[in-house]
Structure formats: C-alpha cells, structure tokens
Design brief:
Its cofactor is [4Fe-4S] cluster; [2Fe-2S] cluster. Keywords: 2Fe-2S, 4Fe-4S, Flavoprotein, Iron, Iron-sulfur, Metal-binding, Oxidoreductase. This is Succinate dehydrogenase [ubiquinone] iron-sulfur subunit, mitochondrial. Pfam families: FAD_binding_2, Fer4_8, Succ_DH_flav_C. One of its GO terms (molecular function) is metal ion binding. By secondary structure, the protein is of the alpha/beta class. Helix content is about 45%, strand content about 10%. It has 20 helices and 13 strands. The strands form five sheets. Strands 8-7-11-9-10 form a five-stranded mixed sheet. A two-stranded parallel sheet has the order 1-2. It has a two-stranded parallel ribbon with strand order 3-4. A hairpin with a 2-residue loop joins strand 9 and strand 10 (about 310). The radius of gyration is 36 Å and the shape is elongated.
C-alpha cells in the first residue's frame, strides 16, 4: 500500500472507507467538458490574430481538457508552438491602434451592473446548483433525447434567473462572490452548446452513451461537431474526421512484415493527401517515411497507392477521397520493392526505361543541317513527353504483377515517344529496328488492355493508347508473324466478313474447339485427394 497511500487516505477522508479492510464505493466522476476552442496546429482560432493553447484548446490531439499527464503535450508543446506563431504573426502586421481604456471601461460597466443589483433575487449558489443538478441528471454518461431537451429548457429558465442574481459582497478586495457570479454567467453560456451538440449527435461513441441511439453510426456521424454562436442560439456545423490508414514496413524492425497503422486527423477542405501525410509526419509520427519534393505534381516523387489506385499524393484532394468513405488508405507504389513505409526502389522502373533505348536513333548519313520537325508531329508527341516518370502506371500494371519481365507501360510509352518521332529510324521515320525489338516477348503484345495505366497516369500520357498505336506501327512495318499480329488480323477478317466476331469459326479453324465429351485429365486422383482433404478439414 506504500504506492497507493494517497489514494487510501482519500478514501478514508472523503468516504470513511479503508480500502485495505473493506470495499470502497465507486461512482462516475466528473472530468470537465470534452471539446474545446477549435484551433489549427499553431493554436490559431478562426478569429484572425486570436490564439488558444492548453486546457481550453482542441487541437485534436486529446480534445479539450484531458488527464494531467496528457495535458503536458497541449500545454508545453502547443503552448510553445502557438506562442512562437503568435509572435511571428505580430511581427508581420502593422501596428494597430487599440483603445485599451474603452475596453476597460466596458468591463467596469458590466461588473458594476452586477454589483448594483438589489439583494432580492436568486442566490448565486441556487442557480449554479440548479444547473449542475439538471446537467448531472440528463447529461451524464447515459442520456437520451427527452432528458437532454428537458435540461435545455432548464438552462433557458436558469439564464433568465441569472439576470437578477445579486452580488452580496460589494467590496473590491478578494471579492469571491463577484468571481462566482462571473463564472456562473460563463458556465450558463457554455452549457447550451454542450446540450445542443449532444442532442444533435444521434449515436453513441466516446463519453456519450445514448439509450435511444445505443450504437455507433460511422456512416452518418463520423465527423466533428463545431458549435458557434448564432443569432438565436448555438449553431452547429460539421468538420470531417479523416482516418488516414498507412501501410508501414520497416526493414530495421524486429518484425519486417508490412502492417497497417491508423492516424486520426482533421484535414482542411483544400488539403491534399500529401498534406495529410506531411501533417502525420510532422505532428504525430516522425518515423513515417515518404518521398515528396515539389508538392505541385511536377516532380512525380509522391506517387503511391491511394484507396487502391496509384496517383500523386500532392494532386489528390483528401476531401475527394473521403467522399468514397471515411478512410484514406495509403500504400506504397506497387510492383516495386519497398525500401521503407511509402518509399519504393525504382531500379526496376529505370532498368525497363533503359531497355527501350530512350533516345533518338536516326539511320542513314549524318544530316548536313538541322532536321526541322513539323508542328503537328510535335503536338502529337506533346502528351507523351508530358510523362514525369512518377511510376504510377507501373504501380498498377496488372501484367507486371504476374510477369516482371514485361517492359511495362512507362517504358513502352517512352518507346512510342521515339517510334512516333519522324527523326527516328529511316528516311520515312520508320523505326524498324526498334519496333522489331519491341515486337518480341515481354513487349508491346503482352499488354492486356486493362486501362489501369490510363487511369493512374496524372499527366494524361495514356500509356495503353500508345501501346495500341505502336502495335499498328509494327503491323504497318511488316511485322505480321507474331501471336499478337495474327490475333489482330484474324479478328479483323472475321468482323469484315460477317459484321460480328465469329467465335465458333475461329475456334474450329484453329483447332481450339473443345471436345463434345469432356475427358478426365491424367492424374485425376490427385485432384480428388485435394477435395477429400478439404471435406475432412471442414467436418
């Protein structure tokens, strides 16, 4: 009991119960209000130039007010942060004339009105006790619509009673009676927003357990309630709650397997996914690793998978992603090995780019003067040259997932940039040598036309369309003896002859018609054994 001596003494002093000898009574405690003044990470409120920090502020770290140990973060870290930011803001604005004397006179008038009230109204303690009893009765942990509306009516009545509450102590030295009156007025201002918010939220979560809405309803109520002062009373608006779920992986950790980690944070309406990730790294978890540089969709460094599809984090609006659900799910780019967290190794990407010889290879004698390219030819290439090498198309390529030898959409789109350039190849701009290499295994014909690369590309390069155009170039250049070319020509002939694809004729003429009687395969007993073992396991 040496470590719990103070707790034991509290039980003896306040409840007359010694926890060594008898059970101690337990009842719900009061932990102030939850919420607080809405600020950003620098302590700035929605009123320009006004800052809040410490117990009163809600920075979405612990919410307004918290246990003593947790308050150190809000008091020390955000106290310093908001102080520094306020000082910088003060230095950046011109000096503003402020009539301090008039403000003091206004406060003196308000206090004097309290002191001048006749001593025939309600007592301060009576009004405060009425407020406390109603709030405790209907807005403790368990609450419902009927009880909360009752308290809202009680508060309106108590606010009217407060208008006649007198301050019996008229003195100017240590006037606690005056302080209690001022505090009561502030509490009666704060109580209605608490009640209105609790009534508005039609679900149970955290410290609110509604008996009439006992379940948590994330579909409708995964959001912050922000209460402001309206013309007729408290007004409620909503702020989104963003849960950013990041796939983490640390090769230096004891367990190097990838895992998911959730971060709850509030994002501004114009924030990007990259803004959210940087906020996590700077304010919540400095161990998170990611690549970013320009933050304006120019460099391509921040390509990653967002809710299952690759894209640039700096170009993807967080609010747009949240319209799909309440979670922003972020993973490293696919089809490339992970270095750490959201950082991947681009060696595979660059190796494939180099495989297509990403430079002009003109044939014939060296020209005596510059080659002037037509404007139309360069306009055609402009969309391809917009590629910023971000790797988003490679990340989502479904062929690369099963065949790492495939050149991939980025390399093939880069190859088209040269096969479509009139300066490449022979005098007619035909790159037969290049097309022959791309016509082989793992080249242009291995694309399955899944359109993932077109969807992922942030610059409109449309790699799949370039691959299709390159196939046309290869056939036009005389490369017919490939599976892809023969497939294309057979389909074209079938449609030309009948207007539609004659699948039966194609199967018959190519010996691919399945037999009328389905025969058992060799080794059927092994397949049957698998089914038997599965059935045995399920019993």
């Amino acid at each position: 009991m040496e470590k719990l001596s103070q707790i034991r003494e509290i039980g003896i002093d306040l409840a007359g119960a010694d926890m060594i000898r008898e059970p101690i009574p337990i009842r719900p405690g009061m932990h102030y209000m939850m919420g607080g003044i809405k600020t950003d990470v620098d302590g700035l409120t929605n009123v320009p130039g006004v800052y809040a920090a410490g117990e009163c502020a809600c920075v979405s770290v612990h919410g307004g007010n918290r246990l003593g140990a947790n308050s150190l973060l809000d008091t020390i870290v955000f106290g310093e942060r908001s102080g520094n930011h306020a000082a910088e803001a003060a230095r950046s604005v011109d000096y503003v004339e402020f009539n301090v004397e008039q403000t003091v006179r206004n406060e003196e008038k308000r206090i004097q009105e309290l002191l001048d009230r006749p001593a025939n109204g309600d007592r301060i303690a009576s009004v405060r006790l009425g407020m406390g009893e109603s709030m405790n009765r209907n807005l403790a942990v368990y609450r419902n619509q009927e009880g909360m509306e009752e308290t809202l009516g009680d508060l309106e009545h108590l606010q009217e009673r407060f208008k006649t509450v007198p301050v019996e102590n008229k003195g100017k030295i240590f006037n606690t009676d005056l302080i209690f009156a001022l505090e009561l007025g502030f509490m009666l201002d704060c109580a209605p927003p608490i009640v209105v918010s609790a009534i508005d939220r039609k679900d149970s979560r955290g410290a609110q357990a509604r008996t009439d809405y006992p379940n948590r309803d994330d579909e409708n109520w995964m959001k912050h309630l922000v209460v402001g002062k309206g013309e007729t009373g408290p007004e409620i608006t909503y702020a989104p709650v963003s849960i950013t779920r990041v796939q983490r992986q640390d090769p230096e950790a004891e367990n190097t397997a990838p895992f998911w980690q959730d971060y709850s944070l509030e994002v501004e309406d114009n924030a990007t996914v990259l803004d959210a990730l940087i906020k996590i790294r700077e304010d919540l978890d400095g161990t998170l690793s990611l690549r970013c540089s320009c933050r304006s969709s120019i460099c391509g460094s921040c390509a990653m998978r967002i809710n299952g599809h690759a894209g640039l984090a700096c170009k993807t609006q967080a609010v747009a992603v949240l319209q799909e659900g309440d979670v922003i799910e972020v993973e490293p780019a696919g089809n490339m090995p992970v270095i750490k967290d959201l950082v991947v190794n681009f060696d595979l990407f660059w190796d494939k780019i180099m495989e297509v010889d990403p430079y002009l290879k003109p044939q014939g004698p060296e020209p005596e003067q510059e080659y002037v390219v037509s404007n139309d030819a360069m306009l055609h290439l402009s969309s391809v040259t917009s590629c910023i090498m971000c790797g988003a198309c490679v990340s989502d390529c479904t062929v690369l997932e099963v065949d790492p030898s495939f050149l991939g959409p980025a390399a093939l789109a880069k190859a088209y940039r040269f096969t479509a350039d009139p300066r490449d190849g022979d005098d007619e701009g035909v790159s037969k040598e290049r097309l022959e290499a791309l016509n082989g295994p793992s080249g242009m014909w291995d694309c399955t036309r899944c359109l993932e690369c077109v969807q992922a590309c942030p610059k409109g390069v449309a790699p799949m369309e370039r691959i299709m155009a390159m196939r046309d170039q290869a056939i036009a250049a005389g490369f017919h003896n490939t599976n892809g070319a023969r497939h294309t020509e057979a389909f074209s002939e079938s449609v030309e002859q009948s207007g539609t694809l004659d699948e039966l004729k194609l199967a018959l003429t190519h010996g691919k018609m399945p037999p009328l009687i389905h025969k058992k395969i060799e080794g059927i007993e092994h397949v049957r054994r698998i089914f038997e073992e599965v059935d045995e396991t399920e019993r």
